[in-house]
Design a protein that fits this description.
The complex is a heterodimer of chains A (529) and B (165).
Chain A (H helix, E strand, L loop, with lengths): L5 E4 L4 H5 L2 H15 L3 E4 L13 E5 L2 E5 L7 H6 L11 E4 L4 H4 L17 H6 L4 H7 L3 H11 L11 H10 L6 E5 L9 H8 L1 H15 L3 E6 L4 H16 L15 E6 L9 H8 L23 E5 H13 L1 H5 L2 E2 L2 E2 L1 E8 L5 E6 L4 H8 L9 E6 L6 E2 L10 H6 L8 E6 L4 H15 L5 H18 L4 H18 L3 H5 L1 H10 L23
Parallel strand pairs in A: 1-2, 6-7, 6-9, 7-8, 12-16
Antiparallel strand pairs in A: 1-3, 3-4, 4-5, 10-11, 12-13, 14-15, 14-16
Chain B lengths: L8 H10 L7 H12 L6 H9 L3 H10 L11 E6 L2 H4 L3 H12 L12 E6 L11 E3 L2 E3 L4 H20 L1
Parallel strand pairs in B: 1-2
Antiparallel strand pairs in B: 1-3, 3-4
Classes of the chains: A alpha/beta (529), B alpha+beta (165).
């Protein structure tokens, strides 16, 4: 400490801020100045152990030592305990990277998140940033596409489409201009990985998008942000300005003759704009109405031009693939699900946050080994995987391996890796009703099964909950689900039946309140608070 | 939140001009107008139609499609309350009921004294620290009824201190 300032890390991630990280940072600065101790406060991203936020870290010779969850009132006692040299304290968590939740992860995409100052190009470069882009600048477009194809990277937005195949289609399309669009409309409940990535390591997304642009010959790109994420949008816009200033965006990227312009755009609270064609309409300044496919966006996308549309996490996986090579990335995972996926533990969970693991980890491991069960202390009754259009799964299916094919075989989907946990007080008939209600509110209205079907679905489930002709109405609901599944234009109407049908299949007792059949846990449906 | 200025066609046109270089600029312009005036004024529809060479129906269609754009001014403080699944699992429905009772306002409504607008939303991305609430763009996690009352009481106190000055 005599020759170098001690670095104290206090996250600037929105989740950390939501539980008081700014006040903690201010308290640490004030206490340090009161005691005449010089220190440097770095506002990093989050390490993803959100139950410990605000998680304060101190850089020591042995590594970064963590304290959490810290409140401003704890700050004087942290100084008393000598936290600046890693001293013991009741909130001490030991070395950050030895915390079991963190230690067992395989962090590729999130390697820098929470480690670096997200708005320092210097810090980013010191941690391997822009190496992938430097390699890409020396490659032909076809070579970049081939590398991404060989890595086995599949779209992380939910559908799991091979990224390299998509890029190749755009590369081979003839056009006077092409675009790269990042779909950051992370509207699924239980997902926050995109937000954390953008707030914790925004240059990674900028680098990934620039590589995509080089690969397909695009000169302009957009990141479609959510209006619900103002903090992430501010961070990204700041990072884009810095990247322009330092010659990583704009004309003559890093001294070459390549050009890529990037802009962040903000949606306006429409869930459907997470569907790629609705997002393109919205970027064009229109209503977010889903387009019929074909034509594929890869051929006729934004403003009718060939367009790469990828999710944040897909694009953020690209720099490391170009840096370390396709083989390095492909060596993680199982079967046809290669690489890693950042799972997100959310809802009623003791240890919520980001778990980046290779595909093949089971739900059981995620929920109990990482998540530590529910925060309410009651048994887990159901989890919803893959957002509001994802299936509800009962504990009997928690040994399901997390990869695209295993989930598809069960009529479930992995989606964006979000896992929402419910304890045994949940009423699954109400959750099924909510799925239909959500679809009715958020449907773009273009196709009838989704627009009308969802409203009819709410009505039918209301009748079932009221105990009115339950058998007949369940049959009618199943029929309706069939129509929505087969007849909807996109996943909004086409997948809303997943949570509904899975709730009926696995938690049928909740749909028969009149028979008063107790659920497995002895709590009667309808008694939920 | 500061009080929004009244509608001004001149100011609106300068906002449109600021976005002239952007392609597909209608959404960024609408966001900027709402940021400035608090809502999308009726007069904005023909103005934007003329400026962007669209029909009034096109502009109205976009304004009405997106949940964010409002046609009337909100209260001094906008409370966005998440009612998506991860927050439901931690009692978001009960929290919304509590908020309606404690503020005496219905969902999507504004309190009689113009202090608060209550807007249910789907997902604020704080799903591991649910229930989540965003007040005037500031995110709060693990918000139970007591914390909600404390947050709103703070804002009322700030408003009163501001009025007294």
């Amino acid at each position: 400490m005599s020759h170098r300032l001690t670095s104290v890390y206090v996250p600037r991630d929105a989740a950390a801020l939501s539980v008081g990280a700014d006040a903690v940072a201010a308290a640490i600065r004030a206490e340090a100045s009161r005691r005449g101790l010089p220190l440097r406060v770095v506002r990093n991203g989050s390490r993803g152990m959100l139950w410990l936020e605000p998680l304060v870290e101190v850089a020591t010779d042995a590594g970064r030592v963590a304290y959490g969850a810290v409140t401003p009132a704890d700050v004087p006692s942290l100084f008393d305990a000598g936290f600046l040299t890693g001293g013991p304290h009741p909130l001490g968590q030991g070395l950050t990277e030895e915390i079991p939740f963190f230690k067992k992860q395989e962090r590729l995409t999130f390697a820098r998140c929470g480690v670096i100052d997200p708005l320092s190009v210097e810090d980013y470069r010191a941690h391997g940033g822009f190496r992938g882009l430097e390699n890409a600048l020396a490659m032909t477009p076809a070579e970049i596409v081939a590398t991404v194809t060989e890595s086995g990277l599949r779209g992380r937005g939910g559908a799991g489409f091979p990224t390299g195949v998509k890029w190749n289609t755009v590369l081979n399309a003839e056009a006077d201009e092409k675009f790269v669009c990042c779909n950051a409309d992370e509207g699924d409940s239980g997902t926050f990985a995109d937000r954390m990535m953008i707030e914790g390591d925004p240059f990674c997304l900028i680098e990934g998008m620039t590589i995509a642009a080089l690969a397909v010959g695009a000169t302009a790109g957009y990141v479609y942000m959510r209006s619900e994420y103002p903090h992430a949008t501010d961070t990204l816009r700041h990072a884009i300005r810095l990247a322009y200033d330092e010659g990583w965006l704009g004309e003559n990227i890093h001294g070459t003759d390549r050009t890529f312009h990037l802009e962040a755009r903000v949606g306006a609270g429409a869930y459907i704009c997470g569907e790629e064609t609705a997002m393109l309409e919205s970027l064009e300044g229109k209503r977010g109405m889903v387009r019929a496919k074909p034509p594929l966006p890869a051929l006729q996308g934004l403003f009718g031009k060939p367009t790469v549309v990828n999710n944040v996490l897909s694009l953020c996986a690209v720099p490391i693939i170009l840096d370390r090579g396709a083989d390095y990335y492909r060596d993680f995972g199982v079967g046809r699900s290669r690489g890693t996926l950042p799972f997100q533990l959310a809802g009623n969970i003791r240890q919520g946050g980001i778990v980046e693991k290779a595909f093949g980890v089971t739900l059981h491991e995620l929920l109990y080994e990482y998540g530590g069960g529910t925060i309410s202390g009651r048994p887990i009754r159901a989890v919803q995987v893959g957002g509001p259009l994802g299936a509800y799964l009962p504990p009997a299916q928690f040994d399901l391996r997390k990869d695209y094919e295993a989930f598809a075989a069960q009529g479930a989907m992995l989606g964006h890796g979000g896992i929402v946990v419910f304890d045994d007080t949940v009423n699954m008939a109400r959750q099924a009703r909510f799925a239909m209600e959500f679809c009715a509110i958020e449907s773009c209205g273009k196709c009838t099964p989704c627009r009308i079907g969802s409203t009819r679905g709410v009505e039918v489930i209301d009748k079932i909950i009221a105990g009115q002709d339950v058998d007949d109405n369940l049959a009618l609901l199943d029929d309706l689900c069939e129509v929505m599944l087969d007849g909807s234009l996109c996943a909004m109407g086409g997948m809303t039946p997943f949570p509904v049908r899975s709730a009926i299949k696995h938690f049928g007792e909740d749909f028969r309140p009149t028979t008063a059949s107790p659920s497995a846990t002895g709590i009667r449906a309808g008694d939920a608070p | 939140m500061s009080v929004c200025p009244p509608w001004s066609a001149e100011r609106a046109m300068s906002i449109v001009a600021e976005h002239a270089r952007q392609r597909g600029a209608l959404l960024p312009i609408l966001h900027a107008l709402q940021e400035t005036f608090g809502c999308i004024d009726d007069a904005a529809i023909p103005l934007l139609a003329g400026a962007l060479n669209l029909s009034r129906a096109d502009v109205h269609g976009v304004v009405s499609f997106y949940h964010d754009f409002r046609r009337t001014r909100p209260g001094r403080h906008v409370v966005k309350m998440c009612r998506a699944e991860a927050c439901q699992a931690m009692g978001a429905d009960a929290l919304l009921d509590h908020a309606r009772r404690s503020l005496t306002v219905d969902a999507h409504g504004t309190t009689a004294d113009g202090a608060f607008s209550l807007e249910p939303v789907f997902c604020l991305g704080n799903c591991a620290l649910s229930p989540a609430v965003m007040i005037d763009g500031v995110l709060h996690g693990r918000v139970g009824p007591e914390r909600f009352d404390a947050l709103t009481a703070d804002l009322r106190a700030q408003d009163q201190a501001g009025d007294a000055r």
